[in-house]
Specification:
By secondary structure, the protein is α+β, with helices and mostly antiparallel strands. Helix content is 28%, strand content 24%. The strands form 5 sheets. An 8-stranded mixed β-sheet has the order 6-9-10-22-21-20-17-11, sandwiched between helices. The protein has a 5-stranded mixed barrel with strand order 1-2-3-5-4. Helix 4 packs across helix 6 and helix 4 packs across helix 15. The longest helix has 23 residues. Bound molecules: aspartic acid.
C-alpha cells in the first residue's frame, strides 16, 4: 500500500497512530536539530518532522530533499507544539521513521504556492505544475461539482445525456469554423461544431424529448478574457415547450446551482427585460444589475431636453444625449475627470468627449458646458437626472443612439467598478428577452441572424418577415449574471417552409441552403415537434462562482490569447508526408 491516509486527513484524534503518507515536498525548513517538511497532495498539507538526535541518518536524507520530490514516509502522528490554525491538519505532525524517495524533481520554474512568483506564460508552459497549486486546483474541483449537480438535476427531470459528433459540417453560430481535412475524402473538410445546435434539433425530431450534453464547442474568433477557441456548454433541448417552460426549467437549474455550490438561495423570480429596454436603460444586452446608475435620456427619439440651438454644437448636432449620475462623486478632482474623459475616448470605447456637471451643496450646478446653458437650464437638467447635492452627472452624446448608448454603458461599468458596486460575491440575474431577429452586417452587407438561423420569430411578428424583417423580434432569451451572458437559447423553427424563408432572408440561395442545411430541412418534413432549448456556458458559470477574472483559470489546459497551447506548442507545422496524405499544399509566403 502506498499510503494509509492522504495529506489532508489526519487530525488530533489520530495521535499515536502509525501512518504512511505519500506526496510532494512543498518546502523544507531546518530548525536546530529538527528538519520540517511540508508534504502536499491534492487533499492538503501535512507536516513531517525529522529529528537529528533520534535518527541522524534519516534526518540527513531529509535535508537533501528538494522541492517537488515525490516521497513516501511512515511515522507516528504526534500532537504539535506550535499548532497552525490555518491548516486543517495543523494540530498534528508526523514523526517520521521511514523515508522512501519515489522520485526526484528538477527545481520547479516557479514556486508552487497560492502566491506564486511565476508569470502567466511560465505557468501556462508548465500548467501541470500550476495545477498543483491549491488555488488553481480548487477551480477544477468546483467545475467537477458543477457538472455532477447539472447531470443529477437534469437527469431527475428526465433529460438524457447524449453525445454528438465532433467531426461534422458547419453549424452557424456567427463565428468562423475550425476545419479538419479528410484524408479519405481528399479536398474535403469536416467542421468542428460551433455548438451541437442542429444535432440537438435532430434529436428532437428523433423523439428524444429532453436532451442535454456537457459539450465541447469550437469557434475560431478573436479571444478575450471570457472566450477560448474551445469551450464547454451545458447544451439542452426540449420538445413540446414554449419560452416560459424553458425559462422555468433553467431558472430552476440556476437556482439549484447557486444553492448547492454557493449556498445562496435565490427565491425571487429572475427579472425579465426586453432587449430594447435593456439597450435603452443600460446600453447593453447583458446589463450588470448589481447596481443602478440607469441612463437618463436628455435627447433621443422620444426626448428633447436641450434647446435645439444653444450654440453647443456637440449637443445641438447629436441625435442622442444621455447621462448617468455617479452618487457622491462631485468631489472628483479635475484630474479624475480627465481620466474619465481619457477612458471614454479610448478607441475601445470611442466617444468624442465627456460632459460633466457637479451638483454643489447648495443645489446649484457647475458644469463643463456652463457657457452654453443658463443656470436655470442646468438646474432643470440636474432635476431631470434626479441628481442630489454631491453627485456627479456624466453625459455622452453622439450621432448614433445605439453607439452612444454602448459608450455610456462602458462608462457606467467603469464608474460601477470605481465605486465598488461590482462586488464578486453579489449576484444579479436576469433574462433578456425579445431580441431582434436580425442584425445588419456592414462587413457582409446583409442581415445576419442575431442568435442563429434556426430561431423562431415571435409569433406576432411573423407577418413582418415580408414587410420589415429588421423589426422582427425573436423568440429568444439570454440569461445574464453580473453583466455576463451565462446562457442563451430560443424556440426553434420546426416548419420547413418558415425555415426556408429564414434562409432566404439571410441571403442563402435555395441551392446553398439545401447544400448546407438540407439534412435539417429534410428532417423537418418527417414530423418535427415544436421544440426549443438553451445552452449555458459552463466555463463562465464556474468562473462566476469562483470569482475569477478569466475563464482560462477554470480550464485545465487553456489556450493563450493568440489561441496557442504553449505547453504543447500547438498549433504547429505538420510533416510533408502528412500534407501529402491530406492532399494539402501550403502556400509559400
Ligand atoms: N446553440 C446556441 C448557442 O450556442 C444555444 C441554443 O440556442 O441552444 O448559443
Amino acid at each position: 500500500m502506498y499510503r494509509t491516509h492522504t495529506c489532508g486527513q489526519l487530525r488530533i484524534t489520530d495521535t499515536g497512530t502509525t501512518v504512511t503518507l505519500a506526496g510532494w515536498v512543498q518546502r523544507t525548513r531546518k530548525m536546530g536539530g529538527m528538519t520540517f517538511v511540508d508534504l502536499r497532495d491534492r487533499y492538503g498539507i501535512t507536516q513531517l518532522v525529522f529529528n537529528e538526535e533520534q535518527n541522524a541518518e534519516l534526518c540527513d536524507e531529509a535535508n537533501k530533499l528538494g522541492r517537488e520530490y515525490v516521497i513516501q514516509v511512515t511515522g507516528t502522528v504526534n500532537e504539535r507544539y506550535n499548532k497552525n490554525k490555518n491548516l486543517p491538519t495543523g494540530d498534528i505532525e508526523i514523526i517520521v521513521d521511514k523515508l522512501n524517495i519515489l522520485n526526484s524533481s528538477d527545481t520547479p520554474p516557479f514556486t508552487i504556492e497560492d502566491n506564486s512568483d511565476g508569470g502567466d506564460d511560465l505557468r501556462m508552459k508548465y500548467r501541470y505544475l500550476d495545477l498543483r497549486r491549491q488555488c488553481v486546483r480548487q477551480n477544477l474541483e468546483l467545475r467537477h461539482r458543477m457538472c455532477i449537480e447539472v447531470r443529477n438535476y437534469l437527469s431527475n427531470l428526465g433529460f438524457l445525456e447524449i453525445e454528438t459528433p465532433i467531426l461534422i459540417g458547419s453549424t452557424p453560430e456567427g463565428a468562423r469554423d475550425f476545419v479538419v481535412p479528410s484524408r479519405m475524402n481528399p479536398g474535403q473538410f469536416y467542421a468542428l461544431p460551433q455548438s451541437p445546435q442542429t444535432l440537438k434539433q435532430l434529436l428532437m425530431v428523433a423523439g428524444i424529448d429532453r436532451y442535454f450534453q456537457i459539450a465541447k464547442c469550437f469557434r475560431d474568433e478573436d479571444l478575450r478574457a471570457d472566450r477560448q477557441p474551445e469551450f464547454t456548454q451545458i447544451d439542452c433541448e426540449m420538445s413540446f415547450v414554449n419560452q416560459e417552460d424553458i425559462i422555468q426549467t433553467f431558472e430552476g437549474m440556476a437556482k439549484h446551482l447557486f444553492k448547492s455550490l454557493r449556498g445562496i438561495e435565490l427565491n425571487e423570480p429572475f427579472l425579465r427585460l426586453p432587449w430594447a429596454d435593456a439597450m435603452r436603460r443600460f446600453g447593453s444586452d447583458k446589463p450588470d444589475m448589481r447596481f443602478g446608475m440607469e441612463f437618463i435620456e436628455l435627447k433621443s427619439e422620444t426626448e428633447n431636453f436641450f434647446a435645439d440651438k444653444a450654440g453647443f454644437a456637440v449637443f445641438d448636432d447629436a441625435k442622442y444625449v444621455g447621462g448617468i449620475v455617479a452618487e457622491g462623486c462631485a468631489v472628483y478632482t479635475r484630474k479624475q475627470i480627465d481620466q474619465l474623459t481619457d477612458f471614454v475616448k479610448r478607441p475601445q470605447v470611442g466617444a468624442k468627449g465627456l460632459v460633466y456637471a457637479r451638483v454643489q451643496e447648495d443645489g446649484s450646478v457647475k458644469s463643463s458646458v456652463d457657457k452654453f446653458y443658463t443656470p436655470e437650464q442646468l438646474i432643470a437638467m440636474k432635476e431631470k437626472m434626479q441628481a442630489k447635492p454631491g453627485d456627479l452627472i456624466l453625459i455622452l452624446s453622439g450621432e448614433d443612439a445605439m453607439k452612444t448608448r454602448k459608450q455610456l454603458c462602458e462608462l457606467r461599468l467603469e464608474m460601477g467598478e470605481r465605486l465598488g458596486l461590482r462586488d464578486k460575491n453579489k449576484f444579479a440575474l436576469l433574462w433578456v428577452t425579445e431580441f431582434p431577429m436580425f442584425e445588419w452586417s456592414d462587413e457582409e452587407q446583409r442581415l445576419m441572424a442575431m442568435h442563429h438561423p434556426f430561431t423562431h420569430p415571435m409569433e406576432e411578428d411573423i407577418p413582418m418577415l415580408d414587410t420589415n424583417p429588421a423589426a422582427v423580434r425573436a423568440d429568444a432569451y439570454d440569461m445574464v449574471c453580473n453583466g455576463v451572458e451565462v446562457g442563451g437559447g430560443s424556440i426553434r423553427i420546426h416548419d420547413p417552409k418558415l425555415q426556408a424563408k429564414m434562409f432566404e432572408i439571410l441571403g442563402f440561395t435555395p441551392e446553398k441552403a439545401q447544400e448546407q442545411f438540407g439534412f435539417l430541412m429534410n428532417a423537418f418534413k418527417f414530423g418535427a415537434p415544436p421544440h426549443g432549448g438553451l445552452a449555458y456556458g459552463l466555463d463562465r458559470w464556474v468562473s462566476l462562482f469562483a470569482g475569477l477574472d478569466s475563464i482560462r483559470d477554470c480550464i485545465a489546459f487553456p489556450k493563450n490569447n493568440s489561441g496557442r497551447d504553449i505547453m504543447l506548442d500547438a498549433p504547429s507545422a505538420i510533416d510533408q508526408k502528412q500534407l501529402d496524405e491530406l492532399d494539402l499544399i501550403i502556400k509559400e509566403n
